[in-house]
Write a structure and sequence with these properties.
Blueprint: E1 2-5, H1 27-35, E2 42-46, H2 53-64, E3 70-74, H3 81-90, E4 96-100, H4 108-111, H5 113-120, E5 126-131, H6 134-142, E6 149-153, H7 159-166, H8 170-176, H9 189-209, H10 221-225, H11 229-255, H12 258-267, H13 283-293, H14 298-302, H15 305-317, E7 321-323, E8 330-332, H16 335-351, H17 359-388, H18 390-395, E9 396-402, E10 409-416, E11 421-427, H19 444-454, E12 457-465, E13 473-474, E14 477-481, H20 482-487, H21 489-501
Parallel strand pairs: 2-5, 2-6, 3-4, 4-5, 11-12, 12-14
Antiparallel strand pairs: 1-3, 7-8, 9-10, 10-11, 13-14
Length: 502
């Protein structure tokens, strides 16, 4: 364990360059904690790798600007809570303690309460902790740190914040979003697998290892005993993306022959021209392709339903995924992770000997599938961000809708809590406006079935797409740019209702 205070603070790596970084939106919560009178609580910053935890602490340390009253502590593997207490006791002249990588402490989950009970409550010290093992913080908050800590979770980076911090656009966010780096974590399958292993799977295993009590592994115990738990959790993540990709491929091959797929691609600027092909729908081919995409992992075949359920629970605790209620849908909070794995699966499909197409045709098919994948991920991005937006949720309830016959759907539904009126959305990864995009929104039977199901009235319809927001309507619905909606959701949902009322 090493610590810095007084003149040695300037030796902290990266401190000199920290002014060059913009501040995350949660920074004001940290400032409030420091500026308010002692509340007898500590502050916990937790999240996956590369989401700005240490930078947040260094930015706050810089703002305090009093090196004699500040101590920065970095924990290392093998350290324990007693080592931390020794450093705190030796530096009680300091008012502010920053403890980085605190989840590396072997007994952090079981002994962390002393930081609040003794140093914050009795000595009135402000303690800000950060750690990569998000699950460790989550478990500690339920037990040792219950009612003793404020929590800031950095894993989820909404598009508006991503755009502000990095200056990158929505297309980049779809493909690489999820960390505050150059996107290299999700640049290829190898990097993505490494990130999933270290930032997610080992995060879970390390936190459970440090619980120190028998039986905490539950249904995952057998995987831990065989040294397979990290691999198992990694495969659960891959299973989600495989199912996602299979759903998209299945839908395309069920509803289109290849010629129509190419016409679709030209219409949406995915490919430039259509060759004179006449390849018809082929059910046997579709089944073979679905089989090719299936994940064949012995660990998953051996797993009990309870083991899979527990792994999913931990992924939710980490904010890696959202299991959408009343559906089979799984939303990844880091879109780049989902896109990278899905794109790798399309690459496998493109190179398979199953497809009776030329190299050029395979490339065109791949572009169509990747565009659909981006569209579904864009839908997930919007749904998840709206679900996390406090102001939006004060006024609206979110949902999704499919007709009983599954021939009509609304990608996202927003129902006003007081008026019980609804705005329905279609999400498209396209900058073009095509009437086909509005087929569900303008389907009277689909609208009536939804209104009866939700006991509501539709007062706004919108296509959310990659183009510019229109002042008026097109094809009798509102067209809203996805970037505009993600930056000001309440404004554009309310505007859709106002436009339809005119």
């Amino acid at each position: 364990m090493e610590f810095f205070t007084g003149d040695t603070l300037k030796n902290i790596p990266r401190l000199q360059e920290i002014d060059a970084y913009k501040k995350r939106f949660c920074f004001d919560q940290l400032k409030d904690y420091i500026s308010k009178p002692n509340t007898r609580k500590i502050m916990s910053i937790y999240g996956l790798r590369r989401t700005g935890k240490t930078v947040l602490m260094l930015q706050l340390l810089n703002e305090i600007g009093d090196s004699e009253k500040t101590c920065f502590i970095r924990c290392e593997k093998g350290d324990g809570i007693q080592d931390l207490k020794n450093v705190l006791n030796d530096n009680l002249k300091c008012d502010y303690f920053f403890v980085d990588e605190v989840t590396k402490l072997e007994d952090f989950i079981e002994c962390s309460s002393i930081l609040a009970d003794k140093y914050s409550e009795l000595y009135a010290k402000k303690i800000i902790m950060a750690g990569t093992d998000s699950l460790g913080f989550y478990l500690a908050k339920k037990d040792e740190l219950y009612d003793r800590t404020y929590m800031i979770h950095t894993t989820y980076i909404p598009y508006k914040e991503y755009n502000y911090l990095l200056g990158k656009g929505l297309e980049d966010y779809i493909m690489y979003g999820g960390t505050l780096t150059d996107g290299s974590e999700f640049y290829n399958k190898e990097n993505c697998d490494e990130y999933t292993n270290t930032a997610i799977a080992r995060n879970i295993q390390h936190s459970l290892d440090n619980l120190g009590r028998d039986g905490e592994y539950g249904a995952l115990a057998s995987f831990r005993e065989k040294g397979e738990m990290t691999t198992f959790i990694n495969k659960i993540v891959e299973l989600y993306t495989r199912r996602f990709t299979m759903e998209i491929v299945n839908k395309k091959f069920k509803t289109h022959d290849f010629l129509n797929l190419k016409k679709y691609a030209v219409r949406h600027d995915i490919v430039e021209d259509v060759a004179p092909l006449d390849t018809r729908k082929n059910e046997a081919l579709r089944q073979e392709i679905m089989s090719e995409l299936e994940i064949r992992e012995p660990l998953l075949n051996q797993a009990t339903e309870k083991a899979v359920s527990e792994a999913k629970k931990y992924l939710e605790m980490l904010d890696v995924v959202l299991l959408v209620p009343n559906t089979d849908e799984v939303i990844f909070t880091q879109p780049g992770l989902k896109y990278c794995q899905a794109a790798a699966q399309v690459e496998v499909l493109k190179s398979t000997s199953l497809l009776p197409y030329s190299v050029t045709e395979r490339e065109e098919l791949s572009k169509v599938l990747l565009n659909d994948i981006k569209g579904r991920i864009l839908e997930d991005i919007i749904f998840y961000q709206l679900s996390k937006d406090v102001d939006f949720n004060r006024d609206y309830v979110l949902d999704k809708f499919k007709t009983a016959a599954a021939d009509g759907e609304f990608d996202i539904v927003c129902i006003h809590r007081r008026s019980n009126e609804a705005v329905v959305m279609e999400v498209k990864h396209s900058a073009k406006r095509v009437e086909q995009q509005t087929r569900h929104l303008n389907n009277a039977q689909c609208c009536q079935e939804f209104e009866a199901w939700a006991h509501t009235k539709i007062t706004g319809k919108m296509v959310v797409y990659m183009g510019e927001t229109l002042d008026g309507k097109c094809f009798n619905v509102n067209y809203v740019g996805a970037e505009d909606l993600l930056k000001s959701p309440l404004k554009y949902v309310e505007r859709a209702q106002e436009n339809d009322e005119r």
